[in-house]
Amino acid sequence: MDLEVRNALPEPSADAIADLEAVLKVRLPQEYLDLLGRMNGAYIQGNIFDIPGGNNAGVSQFIPFDRVLYEKALMEQTGPTKFVPIAHASGGNYVCMSMKASEFGSIYFFDHEIPGDKALTKVASNISQFLDMLRPFSVGDVKLDPDDVGEVWIDPDFLKQIKGE
C-alpha cells in the first residue's frame, strides 16, 4: 500500500540516535532508522492491519523520535518494558518493536486496556513485513458482533457518503 505521508519531521541526528540507544542499552535496528528517515512523526490515514485473533487496527501516526521515551514510559505503566513504540494505532493503542534478544525487531500490537504482557500481540517479524500488511481501510472491514450492538441510527446521507454512493 502506498502510504500518503503528511507532516513528516526531519530525520533524527546521529547524536540523538546514539543518546536514545544509550538509554535503551540497545542498538536500534537499521530498518527502524531507515523508517525514521522517511516517516519520523508522519501522519498517515485510511489504513488498516490485521491482528491475530480476528481484530484489526489502523495506524494514525508514526511516533516522533523525540517522543519515543515519553510514549515508552506510558506503555510501561501497565507492564511491558522490552518494547519501543513506533506508531500510534487506533483506539489509543500502539504498534511497538521488541527489544528482546530472542525476537529483536519483531512488531507487536499493544492494547493499552489490557495489563501486562497479555497486552501484546505479535503482528509481524519486522518493520518491512508490517508495512506490507497495511491495506486501505474499507467500511467492510468493520465487523460487529450482533450481541454488541443494541441499536444504531446512521444519517442516510452520511451512509451514502461513507459507502461512496
Descriptors:
5-stranded antiparallel sheet, alpha+beta, SMI1/KNR4-like, 22% strand, 165 residues, globular
Please characterize this protein's 3D structure:
InterPro entries: Knr4/Smi1-like_dom (IPR018958), Knr4/Smi1-like_sf (IPR037883). It holds the Pfam family SMI1_KNR4. The chain has a 5-stranded antiparallel beta sheet with strand order 3-4-5-6-7. A 3-stranded antiparallel beta sheet has the order 2-1-8. It is of the alpha+beta class and 165 residues long. The chain is built from 5 helices and 8 strands. The two termini are 24 Å apart. The protein has helices at 14-24, 30-39, 68-76, 127-133, 156-163; strands spanning 47-51, 55-57, 59-62, 83-89, 93-98, 107-110, 120-124, 135-136. The chain has one domain (14-163): SMI1/KNR4-like (3-Layer(aba) Sandwich), CATH 3.40.1580.
* Main structural class: alpha+beta
Radius of gyration: 17 Å
Helical fraction equals 25-40%
Give the oligomeric state.
Answer: single chain
> Care to count the β-strands?
8
Mean of residue pLDDT values? 87
Secondary structure elements and their pairing?
Blueprint: H1 14-24, H2 30-39, E1 47-51, E2 55-57, E3 59-62, H3 68-76, E4 83-89, E5 93-98, E6 107-110, E7 120-124, H4 127-133, E8 135-136, H5 156-163
Antiparallel strand pairs: 1-2, 1-8, 3-4, 4-5, 5-6, 6-7
Pfam families: SMI1_KNR4
InterPro entries: Knr4/Smi1-like_dom, Knr4/Smi1-like_sf
Short description, anyone?
The chain is of the alpha+beta class and 165 residues long. The chain is 27% helix and 22% strand. The chain has a single domain, classed as SMI1/KNR4-like, CATH 3.40.1580.
